[in-house]
# Entry
Amino acid sequence: MKNRKRNHVFGKSILLVLMILSLALCSACGTSEGGGTSDSEKNTMDVTVSAKGQEVNEDFSKNVNVNRASEYAKKELALPVKEIGRQISTDVKANDDYRIVVMTRNSTNPYMIGMWSGGQQAGKDMGCTVETLSPSTQDSIEEQITIMESMIEGGVDGFVIHPSDSKGIQPVVDMANEKGIPVAAIGTCPDTGAFMRTGVDYYETGYLVTKELCEAAGGKGKVVVLEGPAGVQNMEERKAGILDAVKEYPEMEVVASQTANCKRTEGMQVMENLLQNKDVADGLKVVASCNDEMSLGAIQALKAQNIKDVFVGGADGSKDAAQAILAGDLYCTYNTDPYGSTYLAVTYLVQYLNDKTLPEEYFIPFPSERHDPLITSENVQDYIDNYRWFE
Amino acid sequence: MKRYRYVLIGMLVLSIIATLIQPSFLAVNNLINILRQASVLLLLCLGLTGVVISGNIDLSVGSVAALTGCVCAKLMISGHPIFLSMLLSLLIGVVAGACNGFLVGVLELPSFVSTYGMNMVASGIALIVMRGGIIYDLPASFTALGIGYLGKVPVPIILGFVLYLCLLLLWNYTVFGRNVYMIGKNKTAAVYSGVDQLGILFKTFIISGLSASVGGIIMTARLNAADAGMCDAYGLQIVAAVVVGGTSLLGGEGGVTGTVLGAVILTIITNIMNMTGVASAWQNLVLGVIIILLVFANSWSLERKKRNAA
# Structure
């Protein structure tokens, strides 16, 4: 009897081991065919840019998200705000004390804090109430849903959201639409139903920064890409931009593309690990990172190994990144101005709540080409002095 | 050594696979690199091991470490001497540990939930202290703790090793250490034989808090920066390292040597995935499967040992 039981346990464990082996096999296959380290990763993103963009439907639930902003929205479309960063202002005034909620993914990333202060300033300038919220568990989509649900029940007039997940947030965006509450999205957007999208065109941020890095490297050498969390939409868009930019340089090659989850700690560790691989370290010229935090971690790793002449680029234009550009550690970054883009989103919401004015297009990128968003050693002082978004 | 054989086998298998795919895995530099990365994780979870042996859990380690790092950086930036800043911020670990001890020992709350609450409290204070900012560019003599070398050995490895030795002696060769195991194995028996349960709870939690604080300071020195969310990446990985190393969550089994192996093996997995270029989407899956496999092997061997003893 006892023996049979033991056999049973043994059988079960064999099964488990087999299961795990097959999983491991799958993953190995996935690695070899998916590449992971090369540009062979399938890029299914639609990266074409149209002259005119998609218009906003009066019924928001019919709006469908787009990845790229139109040429018109980037360059010509008249914005209801002047300047960018902490200089931003508007002539729009709220007709009533609207209650607008700015909900971010977390409360530790400087980008998210920038969104908060931009929203609050917009409320002050236009004369309405702006509340700022984030989940207490960082990046928790469940908590974001709970927050929005209770806000909808509690009676708000509009949302500016930066969701952790485009699919997960969908039901609660639909719920807001049923009650006629407009939801403006920044960064990651619901597939359908947003009132509008603003924030940067992520593909373009990755593309422009990487182009600048490759030019600095003289169009030759190896490239390491630091990705955001796997499957996060806006980070995938940025990665696609990075990979496409590298493709334009036949003598440049992506030798490793790994996630460091947008964290500085992980950026440092992943870079340390990659540098152990001679095929990566020898002739490394460019590190293109999907955000500033990871790039600053990577710089720490490069410094610790005494590796010089690597051009590192990030995205966001955070305080530390600006300091690092001044110090000559970071080569360039892209000003993603969360302060200004949240300000702009609130302005569009107020316009709509005043007299049902709709934004001219669905995706209005901010900052965009017209704002000179690429920050290098040449303009970093001007950026810090005049149009930065951080405090 | 018998106790750790599955972790060692796991480590061996992984290393062989890694070397086959990427020969530079075995390069001395990479091995040092792995140990250096593991030592931060190790500092965070060495103290926790004692808490787990006594049959409790401390989920506040990550936040206490982050809070310590933030306060330490803030003190230094505002002009306080480095040594004083470190000393004061280490107090955070002691206070947090004492609070945990009070909640679990005096108020008799379950440690799983009360330390989870403590975790929120610590990360909440860190958020308020930092106001969403990041402190950058710390004094060079401080960052040397994280990126410096003593001879050819990185400083964090030495610190990790020293703390490991201290705790190894404490758990294995003192009456206090034996009592911790006894409480973990059979609380009632321990209390009847006159073991000061309350005192032991306090001490284990304070040691855990203190080791979290040391980890937080070293992490800050390594990054040359502090932010409120800097230990989020570790999360439950800290607990996983302890359990993978053969310490049972039920208490009374395991030890710090296992925790060292656990921390190293978790670091190796990420290192291998980075070096061989496993696609980002697959990394969590691979890590999760290996953790489950190792814990399964541990509990299976424990079960067999018990059956043989019976």
In short: The longest helix of chain B spans residues 280-309.
